[in-house]
Amino acid sequence: MQIPDIKKNAEHKMNASLEALKANLAKVRTGRANPALLDTVHVEYYGSMLPLSQVANLSLLDARTIGVAPWEKGMGAKIEKAIRESDLGLNPASQGDLIRVPIPPMTEERRRELTKVVKNEGEQAKIAIRNLRRDANEQVKKLVKDKLASEDDERRAQDDIQKLTDRMIAEVDKIVAAKEQDIMAI
């Protein structure tokens, strides 16, 4: 493996860490409705547990209400029960074939708790990125040790990897700040 491959691999893995952070933050509830909130809900369907999105159509009815339209008639009660029993604190209501899931407004205390969760997720992403930096630097050092690269190449590569790390950490900070702002907005 050459230095450009190491850098490209590190960048790819750091981007994957950013995507994981975005996916984790999408599950953190803000004051607005978002069908992604129900991604963690699983429903029993003919003996197996399936994600809600595989047994029903999820849509936004308005800014504070998610609509769940089951694909089969008999699934409504099971879906309602699964949403109610999830740890999301939601209370669905049936309306014919459609299940309405109103998102309650959040209290100031709950908003502060969620910002702590968001900061923690951001910190975990930063740790993952720093670990990737360390791994990439170790791979470069191994190339120098095996005499496949010069010490000048090592210094340049480590500088490039550090710049990449700084850029990724700044991106994490930006994503976390945007999510915190979203949570604290009333």
UniProtKB/TrEMBL annotation:
> Looking at the keywords, is Protein biosynthesis present?
yes
Q: Which UniProt keywords apply?
A: Cytoplasm, Protein biosynthesis
Pfam families per record: RRF
Query: Which compartment or compartments is the protein found in?
Result: Cytoplasm
Alphabetical GO CC annotations of the entry are: cytosol
Is RNA-binding one of the keywords UniProt gives this record?
no
**All copies of domain Ribosome recycling factor, residue ranges:** 21-184
Q: Which GO terms describe its molecular function?
A: ribosomal large subunit binding
**InterPro entries in the record:** Ribosome_recyc_fac, Ribosome_recyc_fac_dom, RRF_sf
Q: What is a biological process (GO) this protein takes part in?
A: cytoplasmic translational termination
Q: Which family does it belong to?
A: Belongs to the RRF family.
Question: What is this protein's function per UniProt?
Answer: Responsible for the release of ribosomes from messenger RNA at the termination of protein biosynthesis. May increase the efficiency of translation by recycling ribosomes from one round of translation to another.
Quote the protein name from its UniProt record: Ribosome-recycling factor
